[in-house]
TrEMBL record:
InterPro entries: LolB (IPR050458), WGR_dom_sf (IPR036930), WGR_domain (IPR008893), YehF/YfeS-like_WGR (IPR049809). It comes from the Bacteria. PANTHER family: OUTER MEMBRANE LOLAB LIPOPROTEIN INSERTION APPARATUS, PROTEIN YEHF. Residues 1-78 form the WGR domain. This is Leucine rich repeat protein. It comes from Leptospira santarosai.
């Protein structure tokens, strides 16, 4: 189940969404146009998860939220967000990394030849440990 609701009045223009996947759901809410805030909740089984998600959905509908189509995200906005996030990560982490014992080992890697295998390994590890899928584009890994 995947639902997207909006609420608009003279002082508000907000959204609320729920995305159920197995025994976990993600609720995201915030001002329309923003990425909002998200929280994830995990249950013992799929039925309990779906029941709770439907309860939250009914509560929002009673408060006046309306079900609408999921907004399309512009690829440029997603790419900019990923690029900015990755750049910020690099700015804060590169100095720490350069001073670590791993820096010399990483400098010896032929990245043009090995990058694909490295990113495949990271995605494989993430998938096994978090039951999530990931894609990579160049130097950016996207977790789905």
């Amino acid at each position: 189940m995947k639902k997207y609701l909006t609420y608009q009045d003279e002082s508000s223009n907000k959204f609320w969404s729920v995305d159920v996947s197995g025994n976990t759901f993600t609720v995201t809410f915030g001002k329309v146009g923003s990425s909002g805030q998200s929280s994830v909740k995990t249950f013992h089984d799929e039925q309990e998860c779906l029941k709770e998600a439907e309860k939250l959905l009914r509560e929002k509908l009673k408060k006046g939220y309306l079900e609408t189509e999921w907004p399309e995200q512009k690829a440029e906005a997603v790419i900019k967000f990923l690029s900015d996030s990755f750049h910020q990560f690099l700015k804060t982490k590169v100095k720490d990394f350069e001073e670590s014992k791993y820096a010399k080992a990483f400098q010896k890697i032929n990245w043009e030849k090995e990058a694909d295998q490295v990113f495949q390994s990271v995605c494989s590890y993430w998938t096994k440990s978090g039951s999530q899928n990931c894609l990579y584009f160049g130097m950016v890994i996207i977790y789905l």
